[in-house]
Amino acid sequence: MAVYDCKDEEVKILEITQSSIQNAIFALAEDEDRGNPKEYDIVVTRTGEKLETSYTVTPKPSKPLPQEAQELIEATKINLDALYDGEDPFEIDELDDDVPF
């Protein structure tokens, strides 16, 4: 999925392969007090290495998206389907208005 990275102030692609992270985000989404994870920030922290690696998923309180971030998101075109074809999802034909994100 496409996400806004608050630390780097960039739009990036997030691919989550670790089931522990996936399960934690699904649990947040099902929690009626939290709701849709698209509505708040989530911080994923990695500790350990190799077989000792673990992840902590921490939801942050909801707050408005900064105007600069919103403008960057609106200006960034990403074709997530390109990932399945081994292509660059950030290389978008300027004539293609049907690009997700």
Question: How would you summarize what this structure contains?
Answer:
This protein has 101 residues and is an alpha+beta fold. It is 21% helix and 20% strand.
Instruction: Label the overall shape.
Output: globular
SS elements, strand count: 4
Number of helices: 2
Widest sheet: strand ordering = 1-2
Average predicted confidence as pLDDT: 89
Beta-strand percentage? 15-25%
Poorly predicted residue ranges = none
The sequence of SSEs as H and E is: EEHEEH
Percent helix, as a range, is 10-25%
N-end to C-end Cα span: 9 Å
Structural class, from helix and strand content? alpha+beta
Radius of gyration of CA atoms, rounded to a whole number: 16 Å
Sheet with most strands:
2 strands, antiparallel
Name the descriptors:
101 residues; alpha+beta; 21% helix
